Amino acid sequence: MRRAKRDASLVEGAVHAPLAHDSAVRHVTGEALYLDDLPEPRDLLYAFVRLSDRAHARVTRLDVTAAASSPGVAAVMTARDLPGENDIGPVLPGDKVFADGLVEYWGQSLFAVAADSIDHAREAAFRATVEYEDLPAILTIEQALAHGSFVLPTQVLRRGAPSKAIARASRRLSGRLAIGGQEHFYLEGQVAMAVPREGGGMLVHSSTQAPSEVQHLVAKVLGLAASAVTVEVRRMGGAFGGKETQAAPVACVAALLARRTGRPVKLRLDRDDDMIFTGKRHDFTAEWEVGFDDEGRIRGLELVLASRCGFSPDLSGAINDRAMLHADNCYYLEDVSITSHRCKTNTVSNTAFRGFGGPQGMMAIEAIVDAIARELGQDPLQIRRRNFYGRAGRDLTPYEMRVDDFVIPELVDELERSSQYQERRRELARFNARSPWQKRGIALTPVKFGISFTATQMNQAGALVHVYTDGSIHLNHGGTEMGQGLFIKVAQVVADELGVGVDRVQITATTTDQVPNTSPTAASSGSDLNGMAARTAARTIRKRLAACAAAALGGKAEEVVFAGGKASVGRRSIDFADLATLAHRERVSLSATGFYRTPRLHFDRERHRGRPFYYFACGAAVSEVQIDTLTGEYKVRRVDLLHDCGSSLNPAIDMGQVEGGFVQGMGWLTTEELWWDEAGRLGTHAPSTYKIPACGDVPDDFRVTLLHARNRQPTIHRSKAVGEPPLMLAISVFHALADAVAAVGEHRLTPRLDAPATPERVLLAVEELRARLGQPALREAAE
Ligand code: MTE
Ligand code: MOS
C-alpha cells in the first residue's frame, strides 16, 4: 500500500501538501470530542424512543400513563404533545417525529421518554401499553410493483427509439440483477443533545451532515423561528450519507423533551435501535433488454430500475434520479430508455448513502456490458472499451450533457499496463485449467461520477473568516467534518491565500449562527463549495491587508505578496501578525464572509435534460479474486486502483478517501447483507449478523495511485471531489467474482450472480452454472 507522508508542520504552500487530518492524533488518543464526549450540563436528562413492533398497523391504543409515573421520569412525549408540527419530511411530507395513529414500518418511533438515566427511560418506555390492528404490509420491490405502490411517480429518461434499435441490432440479450442495500454503520451512532436557552431558544448539538436542515426542523416541531435555534457540530464519527436526513428525528426528539422539561436532554440510539430505526442504501432491481452488434457495441437499451424506498419519500426522488443519471457510467448509449420506479414499502425509509443511487445505476450497466462480453466470448475489458464515450457524435449522455473531460480511455490504458492485466489474465487461465475447485477471476471496471447536487439550488456555500490582531485566523464554513478531511482541506486553502502555515488557522465547529442557510455536506462537494467560499472570504481580508502593507512598506497593493508568514513588497516585508495589528490600528476590518455558487449548472427535472453536473470524477480498478467452488468462500487477492483527484488539495486525505471508499463499496457488494423476516422485522441489526469488512478483508496486495491531472473546470485549485466516487471502484470485485464463477464453465456462460455476492450466493451461482452446463453439482462430484 502506498503510504502518504504524515508531516503536518508545513508552513508554506499548504495547498496540495499531503498533510495529516487535523484531528488524526486526537482521533487515536481519544482526545477528539464526539458529541457523547462533551461535558454533560447540569440536570441533563436521557431520552429513549419506543419503536413500533409492527410493519403496518393502526395504533388502536397508546397509553403512556404507566411510563409517566415510572421512577426517574421527567416527561413523556407523543405525537399529540408537540408544540409545533409533527412532519419533518426533508423534501416532501411523510416522515413524522412520532407515529400518529398509523405505523408504517417495524421500528417507527411511537413516543419518547426523558428520565434521569438511560435505564430509567428505557424501563419506563416499555411500561406503556401499545395495541395495534394489523394492516396488510408490502415489504419487497416485487410486491410493490405488483400493487403499483410508489412513493413518487415513475420517471422515464428516453433518447432516440430504443425498441426499434434493439429490434434492428444483430444481437439481443435480456437479463435481471438484484442489488442489495447497505447499512451505514458509522462508528458513532445517531446522537443529539438539546440545551434550552434563555428566552425560549434552543442550542442543539447534533451529529449531522445538515446543520441548517436540523435547525429548521427543530424550529418547526417546537413552533419557533429558525433564529431561536442554533445547531452545532464539531465532528461526526462517520456519516456516509446516513446523517443527511436521519439525524433530524433524533435532534427533534431531544429538543422536544428539552423544551417540555426546561432541562437539557441527550438522545443517543444504541446500535440495534439505530440500525432498525434509520434508513439505509436503497436496494434495487434492474431488468434490461439490450441490442448490440457483433463487436459488442450497444445499439439500443431498455433498462428498468426499481428501488425499495420504504414508507416515505425522504431523499428517494434525488437518489433515484442519480441512479438514472449514472446508468450510462462510461458508455455511450445512443438509443436508450431508463425507467425508474420508486417503490413504496412498509420498511424503513431508505436514504442517502455514499454514491446516492449512482452505484446502483452503475451496477446495472456494468452487468449489461459484462453479459454482452460473455455472450460474444470476449474479455469484458474489450467490450467496455468499445462502448466508451468518444469524440463528437459519441459524447452526449442520455440526458444530453457533453462529456468533454473524459479521462477514462487513457486512465484505463494506464491501469491495464500498471496492473499487468493482460499477463495476469493469461496466468489466471493457466491457473484455472490446473485447478478443479479453486478458481480465480479478474475484472477491470471504470467509474465516471457526476459532481454537484442534481438539485441546482443546493450548490452554494458560505464561509466566515476572522483574523485576530496576533495574526491567528479563525475559520468557519457551512461544511461538516465526518472524517473525510474537509476541515484540513479548507484550512489549507485559507492558509495558502493568506501566505501563512495551516497551524495559524483555527478550525472551528460548524454552527448555524456563524454561517447560515447551508446545504448539507454531501454529494462529495464539500471541499469544492466550502473551499471556494472560504477562499473568497480570505481573499477579501487579504486585499484589505495588502492596502495596509503597501501603505506601510511603499509600493502598490497589487504588488504585495503573502507568503512565508509575511507580506512583502520587493525586499521589504512585514510579519503577518504585525500587519494584522497595524490594520487594526488603522481601523480596517479583519473579518469577512465568503459565498460561492457553482457555475454552469442547469437541469430540467421533468425532461431529464441539461447539465446537472459541473464535471465528472473518474477512476478505474482491477480486482483479482479466488473462489472455492466447494464452499463459495473467497479472498480478494490483489487490487489496483487509479483514481483521478484532479490537482489534489491534499493527496494524503484523498488517498484515505480512495482506500476507504473502495473497502466500503467492497463490503456493500460482498459481505453486507440486510435481511428482513416475513413480518417486516430487520433481522440483521447488529454486527453479529451484519458483516462489514474488517481489517482482514482489506486486500493483501492493495495498490492505490492518484492520477494528478488538473480539473478542466476552474474548481478550487483545480482539484476534484473525491468523497463518493471511489466507492464504485469496488464494482470490480463483484465482476472479478463473477469472472471466477464463469471460469467454472470456461467462460462460455454468464453467471447469475446478484449483489451482495456473499459466499452463499457465489456457491449458488457456481451450482446454477454447472446445472446449465449439464454437469453435476461440484459438491456431489467431489463426494
Ligand atoms: N469519509 C469518512 N471518513 N466518513 C464519512 O462519513 N462520507 C462520504 C465521503 N467520505 C464520509 C467520508 C460521503 S457520503 C460524502 S458525500 C463525502 O464524504 C462528504 O464529504 P465531502 O463533500 O467533503 O467529500
Ligand atoms: Mo453523501 S451520500 O452525498 O452524504
Global structural class: alpha+beta
Bound molecules: ligand MTE, dioxothiomolybdenum(VI) ion
Radius of gyration from the alpha-carbon trace, in angstroms: 27 Å
Strand line-up in the sheet with most strands: 3-5-1-12-9-10-11-20
What distance lies between the first and last C-alpha atoms, to the nearest angstrom?
41 Å
What is the general shape? globular
**Total count of helical runs of at least 4 residues:** 20
Largest sheet: 8 strands, mixed
Helix content: 25-40%
From the structure above, extract its key features.
single chain; 783 residues; alpha+beta; 8-stranded mixed β-sheet; binds ligand MTE; binds dioxothiomolybdenum(VI) ion
Short description:
With 783 residues, the protein is an alpha+beta fold.
Characterize the structure shown.
Residues 1-11 have low confidence and may be disordered. The chain is globular and about 85 Å long. The protein is an alpha+beta fold and 783 residues long. An eight-stranded mixed beta sheet has the order 3-5-1-12-9-10-11-20, sandwiched between helices. The chain contains 20 helices and 29 strands. 29% of the residues lie in helices and 25% in strands. The structure holds ligand MTE and dioxothiomolybdenum(VI) ion. Residues 238-241, 354, 482-484, 486, 521-527, 657, 660, 721, 723-724 line the site of ligand MTE.
